[in-house]
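Data availability (excerpt). The following record was deposited with the supplementary files.
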Amino acid sequence: MSEKWFEVFRAGTYPQGTFGNEDLDAIVRNHAADGYTAPLVLGHPKTDDPAYGWVDRIRRVGDKLLVTFREVAGGLQELVNQGRWKNVSVRLRQTKQGWQLRHVGLLGAAPPAVEGLKPIHFEADNMDLEFHAEERMNEEDKLKQRIAELEAEKQSAEERAKTAEAQFAAAENQRRIVEIKRFVEEQVKEGRLTPAQRDRGVVDFLAMLDSTTTVDFAGGKQTQANWMRDFLQSLPPQVVLGSIAGRDTDPDVHVEDFSEYREGQVNQERLVRHQRALAYVRAHKVPYEQAIRLV
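Predicted structure:
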C-alpha cells in the first residue's frame, strides 16, 4: 500500500474536554514511545483487538492529526468501499507524558466525535476516512463551558487586582514614611524637637496615627495625624542653634566662665546642656532653672 496520510482527529472542544495543538503534539511524541502501537479496529472495543491494521506514523498539520497505516486487512478495504465503515474515531489515553493514541476505530452507523475532516474512502491501495459529529455540544453545554471559562478569567483578574492593590498600599505607605521623616527633620532644624526626642520614635508614632478619618478637636475637625503635626509646629523652639547667651550680651544672666578649666575637668555633656539653657533663657526670657529643665 502506498503511503498516504489520513486525518483522524483535530483540536477543539468536546464533551470530554478541550484539546489544543499542544495536545496533538504530545500524541505525536508519545506514538510508540513505550513500544505500544495503536491498532486499526472496528468501533470502540473494550480491548484493542482484533486489529485490522496498525498506525505506522503520526504527525500534526495545523490543528489536525494525521496518520499512516500499515498491514491493513484487504477485506476491511472492501467493506469500507461498500460504505459499511465510512466514519472514523479515536481513543486517547492520558499518561504522565501527555495524551497517547490507543486506537483508530472505524465506525458504522454511529457518527464519530470529530467533525470538519476530509471525507475519504478506500480505492485500491488508498484509504479515505470521514468524520461526523457524534457528541455535539448543545447550546446549553456551550454556555455552561463559556460561563466556567469567564469565571476562571474573573478569578484571575481579581487576584491580579488584589496583588496590585497590595503593591500600591505598600508604595503609598513608604511615601508617607518618607514625608513624615522630612517633616520631623524640619521640626528638629527649627528647634521644636531635639534630636533625642526625634530618636525616641516620633516618626513611628506619627505613622501610626489615622490620616484619613476626621475627629472633633477643640480647634475643629481634623485627622489625628494633622492635629499632631499642628501641635508640634505650635511648640516654641527648645534650642536656638548658633546663639549662645553670655554675660557680656545679657548682664541679667549669670554665665559661668569655663575657659580657665583645663581639658578633662569639665563634663562636656553638662556644658552643652548648660549652653542650651542659656540660649533658651535669652530667647524666651525665662529663669535659668526653668530653662535647664526644658532642655
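Summary of structural features: Residues 240-295 form one domain.
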